[in-house]
Amino acid sequence: MVAAPRSTYSCVWGWVVSIDLLALVGAMLTIATPLVWAGIGEVVVERTGILNLGIEGTMYLGAFIGFLAALRTGSPWLGLLAAVVSGVVAGLAMALLTVTLGLNQHVSGLGLTLFLIAVCEFTFRLLYAGERPTLEQKFHTLLPGVAVLNQHWLTYVAFLVLAPAAWWVLRSTGMGYRLHAVGENFEAADVAGISVAATRYVALMVGSALMTVGGAFLTLAVLGSYTLDIINGRGWVCIALVIFAQWRVWPTVFGALIFAVTDALQLQLAITTAFGSIPRELMLALPYLAVITALAVWGRKVRYPGSYLRAYRRG
């Protein structure tokens, strides 16, 4: 076996020791934040047995409506509120298609995603053709000067409030039990007096609102502007993370951190001369390849909820 040249080892080792771990962790938390918001929202929805493929479009909607409202009012807080309201409306639309009309969940979700993305992009081009508007006021980071702790307040809420609260609600409250009962066996839940339709409606509205917060985080906190590829597949990543996590909150958060640290690493790899010969496209694909690999390895052993992808017709 031919040994690798010492120059290769030196380049790789030089890159490893040059990593700023604090900056890497800080970037990881920022990148993971929209995935945590949207991923937990998808957990809430899928606990009732509904696969919401409209998550990508819902995140687009939150990013666009939040940006548009903040741009017109000058307040990122009103932008965030508008994004949450738009998420509730998107959840109602998905509920109408899948719960009331009982349409195929794959078709409904993909149709909703395509519709919402098309509406957002068309409206943006119509209002700002050839322009790149930016927000005068956006959410700023806290504790400047400290790489790890210098995060937006939505990041702190995602990890310190949302994740523990969602875990507790789904595990230890009556609402969590109802979501689980509907997702596992909606016939038995109906017999026990639980309204399957109402439970799924509430889950879709709450879950979609969380998804729009994840999208709005990118425009109202990170970028301060809106681009046509702003979500860039994060919704699809969240679906994979939720399945990988088997519809549990903390494994979903852990999966989001794995994706985020891989994404942060590829950004450092891209500017390192030791890896200059690696195509940029491959660097960009690394975090997505990590998610696909994890899903392919562990996803085969997943036990899906009993009511998964099934529409309920009483009687």
In short:
With 315 residues, this protein is mainly α. The chain has a domain at 21-229. The protein contains 12 helices and no strands.
Structure commentary:
The protein is an all-alpha fold. It has a domain at 21-229. It is 71% helix and 0% strand. The protein is built from twelve helices and no strands. The protein has helices at residues 6-18, 21-46, 55-73, 76-100, 105-127, 153-172, 174-184, 186-191, 196-223, 234-244, 249-270, 280-298. The longest helix is centred in the middle third of the chain and has 28 residues, at 196-223. The chain is globular, with a radius of gyration of 21 Å. Residues 7-18 have low confidence and may be disordered.
Furnish the topology, listing elements before pairings.
Blueprint: H1 6-18, H2 21-46, H3 55-73, H4 76-100, H5 105-127, H6 153-172, H7 174-184, H8 186-191, H9 196-223, H10 234-244, H11 249-270, H12 280-298
Helix pairs in contact: 2-6, 2-9, 2-10, 2-11, 3-4, 3-5, 3-9, 3-10, 4-5, 4-9, 6-7, 10-11, 10-12, 11-12
